[in-house]
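Annotated sample (chain length 100).
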Amino acid sequence: MSTHSRVRSRGSSQAGRAVAVVADVLAFVIGLWILLYLLEANQANGLVGAVHDAAAWLAGWSYDLFTFSREWIQVVVGYGIAAVVYLLVGHAVAGWLYRR
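Output written by the structure step:
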């Protein structure tokens, strides 16, 4: 393997790891909000509010895809779809980068 190939491979591997980590962090923030909501965390708390704001921004595109009569189901499905998509797409891109 040439030096150029090793450098490119190492760069692709590092980029793949970075994409996977970002996807994991985004999904974690959304999952944390779902957990805080289900545990009825105090939304007046600064940390809870920050997690909610971040999760709402990240899941803004998926939250109202489906509507349910029970609010907790709406939160779990609406935010959960975004978390799963971030994981699937992020890790698919990371895998593609690893193979480059």
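Annotation: The CA atoms of residues 20 and 91 lie 5 Å apart.
Annotation: The chain has a mean pLDDT of 91.
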